[in-house]
Structures are given as structure tokens and as C-alpha cells.
Amino acid sequence: MTNNVYIIDTCSLIDLNIHNPIDVYPSVWERLDELIKKGLLVAPKEVFNEIKQQDDNLLKWVRGKKGFFKEVTQEQIRIVTEILQKYPSLIKVDRKYDADPFVIALAVEMASNNQTTLINIKRIVVTEEKLAGLKVKIPLICKDYNIDCINVIDMFRSEGIKF
Known about the structure:
It is a single chain. By secondary structure, this protein is of the alpha/beta class. It has a domain at 38-145. It is built from 8 helices and 5 strands. It has a 5-stranded parallel β-sheet with strand order 3-2-1-4-5. It is globular and about 40 Å long. The model has no long low-confidence stretch (mean pLDDT 91).
């Protein structure tokens, strides 16, 4: 168990459901539930909007997850604007929703909030995107903002979760 808070991208949830379907691997999803209930796994509301467009089974699972989806704040909007000015190709103009800049903005905002505890809490983005040279994807921008970026399997490893 760590002192990490994970901000998860849509692709990690969709990928996880493809390879570990909720109805076949319920224990995987129960462990995610535990992280959500402890406030250790969050996502911006835009992730919910993307899931609504793509995945019915996953949508059933995420509905009613109290505390999981975070509302967009003015600070996040400022950070998203900054990100898109620097990296305009991050979003696809043909998509109705694009959560990527909001995932990063939530992580940046959470990391910059003054901590009132003695425990150092690390904010980590969880995505299945890979750092590939200078390709404008979540890992590249996270690196620019000094935010760690891992995939969902590495999140399970970090938390000592085994199935």
C-alpha cells in the first residue's frame, strides 16, 4: 500500500474491461472499487462522458461510484487551456469528448494543492498510452508537468494488488 492517488484515463478502464471483463473478473473490479472508496482512484467527469459514448458494460459499473468522478474546476480549465496552447494536437477535433487534457489537469491541480498532512501523497496518472518520442500523448505532457504516468497493471503492482 502506498500514499498514491491515481487519476485514471478512459483508455485504462476500457482496456481493463476488454481484457478483464467485469462479469468474468469481478475481483479486479472489486479492487478498483476499494481504491475508489478510499479516495485513491479518481477521474475527471470528462472520463465519464467518454465512457458514455463507448462502453455500456463499463458505464453500468461506473454509475453511482461516489467520489470517483471529479467536477471540473476553474483551475483545471486554466490548466487545460495552458496544455492545449502548448500541445494543440493532444485533442482530436472530430471527437465530442476528449478527456486527456482533463486527466492531466486534475493531476496537476491535485499535485499543486497544499497538503495538510505529514504524509507525502503522490498524484499519478494512469493511462495505457506510452511515451513515444515527442508524440503528443498523455505521458509526454505528464513528463512536462512532472507528473508520474503509469499503466493500470503498474498501479496494481504499486498497491500490492494481486489476483
